[in-house]
Amino acid sequence: MMNDVAVGIDVSKKKLDVCIARSGEYKTKALSNTHSGHKELVRWLEAQGVSHETSVALEATGPCPQCFDPNA
Fold this sequence. Notes:
This protein is of the alpha+beta class. It has one helix at about 35-45, and strands at about 5-10, 15-20, 25-30, 55-60. It has one domain (about 5-70): ATPase, nucleotide binding domain (Nucleotidyltransferase, domain 5, 2-Layer Sandwich), CATH 3.30.420. The relative contact order is 0.26. This is Transposase.
């Protein structure tokens, strides 16, 4: 069975730009890159009918050395 949904997330230090592509239509949303933003992302994806089995592509917007430094 082929999945007709694609999800892409552009990740930056402060925000997540999310796009859901389904059957030639697109829905987008910008969320904060925080714990509460991540919870909102999950709720929004579920509300859009995105399955937990759907693959999600992530892309880092630019260098973010602080993302890898637990002391930052």
